[in-house]
Amino acid sequence: MSATSHLYVPGSKPERFHKAEQAVGSGAVIFDLEDAVAPRDKAAARQYVAEHLSRPRPSGPAAPLAWVRLNADERLEADLEAVVGAGLSGVIPAKTCSREELDRLDELLTAAEAERGLARGRTAVAPLIESGLGLANAVDIAHGPRVTTLHLGEIDLAADLGLEPGPDETELLFARSQVVVACSAAGITSPVAPVSANFRDLAGFTASTRALRRLGFFGRACIHPDQIPLVEQVFSPSAEQAREAADILRRLEDAGSGVALDAEGRMIDEAVARQARRVLARRPSTT
C-alpha cells in the first residue's frame, strides 16, 4: 500500500478531487480534513470526502490510493465515522504524540470496519509527527497498530521546537533522521518526506527532494500537482541504476559465498545487496 507521490487536497474543495487523483496516477491523494480546512467548513468537508469515497473507486496497480488526514481533536471520531469504507486506503492522524493515541484509533477503526462489513485491519494508519513529544516518541509510534509508515509535519514541528530553518534546512536534520530511524526500527516502509510550501520554486523542490531521498525517505508529500513528476523522477531509479542493481544481485547469487565483487572490483555483501533491492523496488510498475 505504498506510493511515491502523496498529493494533499483540501476536503472542502470537492471540485479538485478528481483532478488530484488524475495527477497522482498510481500515487496517493490525501483528502485533508485538518489544517487545510477552515473550522466553519469542517462538517461540509467531511461530507464531501465521504461522498467521494463512497463512489466506485478505480482498481488495479495503477489506481491512486485514498488517504484522509484526520483532525486531532474532538472531531476525530466523526471523521472516522464518515470516511471509513471500502474506498479508503488509510488514515493520517494529525499531530500524533503517543502510542496510546494509536491504540485508541485502532479500536475505533476496528469498530467501524465491523459495522461496514470490512475485514479487520484493512484500513492502514500513517501517523503525522508534528511536535517535540511526537518526535521523542517516534519509535513507539512507528510500532503502533496498523502503522505502515510515518509522515513528518515540519511547519508545526518547527513552531513547537522554536526552530528557524535556514536555506539548507540543516536545523531539521535531526528530526528527519529520527523518523527514518523509527521506521527502520519498526520494520515499516521508510517515511514520506514532508511538504514544501514554496511550490513555485521547482528547482529548489527537486534539490531538497534528492537530499531527503539520500537521507532515507521514500516518496514525498506534495501540495501542488506540478511537484508530482519531480518526486516521481527523483525516487525512480534510472535504467542504468536498475541494471547495476540487478548485476550486483546476480553476482552475489552466483558467488554463493555471501561475498562477491562488482563490475569495478569492489566488494559486494548483504548490505550492498539490500541497497540494490531497494533500487529495484523503486522501479515503476509495468502491470
Automatic annotation (TrEMBL):
UniProt keyword Metal-binding, yes or no: yes
Keywords: Lyase, Magnesium, Metal-binding
HpcH/HpaI aldolase/citrate lyase domain: residues covered: 6-225
Necessary cofactors: Mg(2+)
Residues binding substrate: 69, 130
Enzyme class, UniProt record, top EC level: lyase
Classification via InterPro entries: Aldolase/citrate-lyase_domain, Citrate_lyase_beta/mcl1/mcl2, Pyrv/PenolPyrv_kinase-like_dom, Pyrv_kinase-like_dom_sf
GO BP annotation list: oxaloacetate metabolic process
Pfam families, sorted: HpcH_HpaI
Keyword Lyase recorded: yes
Chain residues that bind Mg(2+): 130, 156
Entry EC no(s): 4.1.3.34
Domain of life: Bacteria
Any one Gene Ontology molecular-function term assigned to this protein's record: citryl-CoA lyase activity
Protein name: Citrate lyase subunit beta/citryl-CoA lyase
Organism: Nocardioides panzhihuensis
